[in-house]
Write a structure and sequence with these properties.
There is one protein chain. The chain is α/β, with parallel strands linked by helices and 318 residues long. It has 13 helices and nine strands. Helix content is 41%, strand content 19%. Strands 1, 2, 3, 4, 5, 6, 7, 8 and 9 form a nine-stranded mixed β-sheet that branches. Strand 1, helix 2 and strand 2 form a beta-alpha-beta unit. The chain is elongated, with a radius of gyration of 23 Å. The N terminus is likely disordered.
Length: 318
């Protein structure tokens, strides 16, 4: 009987100690851009293997992340668009950590898929499609096709991808695209689902969502739209780099794929990064960079990384 009481007391002490340890473990809260969401999950998983910290990550879009961090609800915002001056005035401090790109996406059963992959679509073509000046797929390739009305998809959330895509198309903003869209979706995966479910749909996604991460081929029922960069209605060898994710990533890195819609990915805090959050950011910008390319993003040049680390240390971008 006495032994049972002793064991019970020991067990209770262990549970109390364990609970106290869990309470004191540092937590890093992150929210924001779907574009950086997959990469941040990789960084968090790797970092937690060697550091006694809990990292909680949610998406919601660049706008939500920015709102969350400025209101003190998270420690880090993921932002896939340039940080605005009014956000900086509210205390936003940002660092760039990687680069990626937004691409147009269509269904693999698109009625003119073969022609699109032979000639590509120019920026002017894409502008005409997303602004509803061209409303049927056959118009793009000079063919009369039945059941080819283009279904244009947009983003409902405050999306960095939408901002960058609107910039690429011309002097537009996300609202312009939303107003013209047949349907608007929150998040990249929802946009993908919309494209997958309709052979006539076109949307835009962060490039990682258009590919199968395991084998670098296309995501199911999704095809990226190749851009006719020189407007000659022929997709030549220098423009045909969409069949594998790594090929597209390489062209983003080389600057062949245009910017926009390629863009920098940012992390943002309210005021300087400090303590355990700062340590995580230092790791992302150093050891964490080795995970960037294999996960479909573009590493920053060493010169840029050194500059961002300098800003991190100073706590400002001066």
């Amino acid at each position: 009987m006495m032994m049972k009481k002793i064991l019970l007391v020991i067990t209770s002490i262990i549970l109390i100690i364990s609970a106290c340890q869990n309470k004191t473990k540092n937590t890093i809260r992150i929210s924001g851009a779907w574009a950086l969401f997959p990469m941040m999950n990789v960084w968090a998983a790797e970092y937690q293997k060697t550091h006694d910290v809990v990292i909680e990550i949610s998406g919601g879009g660049a706008g939500k992340g920015m709102s969350d961090v400025l209101n003190g609800q998270v420690d880090i915002a993921m932002c896939s668009r340039p940080v605005r001056e009014e956000e900086i005035q509210q205390g936003a401090f940002y660092l760039s950590v990687a680069k990626d790109a937004v691409i147009a996406t269509i269904n693999s059963a698109n009625p003119v898929l073969k022609e699109i992959y032979e000639q590509g679509l120019s920026r002017d073509d894409l502008e005409a499609v997303f602004l509803k000046r061209i409303t049927h797929w056959g118009e793009l390739v000079g063919k009369k096709i039945e059941d080819d009305k283009i279904i244009v998809l947009g983003r409902a959330d405050a999306s960095g991808a939408a901002k960058v895509w609107a910039d690429f198309l011309g002097d537009y903003n996300q609202s312009d695209l939303q107003d013209k869209a047949d349907a608007n979706y929150s998040g990249d995966q929802s946009m993908c689902n919309g494209v997958q479910s309709n052979k006539n749909a076109i949307g835009f996604n962060n490039l990682n969502y258009a590919y199968n991460i395991e084998n670098e081929s296309f995501a199911e029922h999704i095809r990226p739209v190749p851009v006719d960069l020189n407007n000659d209605n022929i997709l030549n060898q220098n423009e045909n780099f969409y069949n594998r994710r790594d090929d597209l990533v390489a062209k983003v890195s080389e600057g062949i794929y245009p910017s926009p819609p390629s863009r920098l990915e940012y992390i943002v805090s309210k005021g300087p990064f400090t303590e355990h959050v700062k340590e995580f950011i230092q790791w992302i910008s150093t050891d964490g960079q080795k995970f960037v390319t294999e996960n479909g993003y573009v590493k920053l040049p060493e010169k840029e990384i050194k500059k961002e680390l300098h800003y991190l240390e100073r706590g400002n971008r001066e």
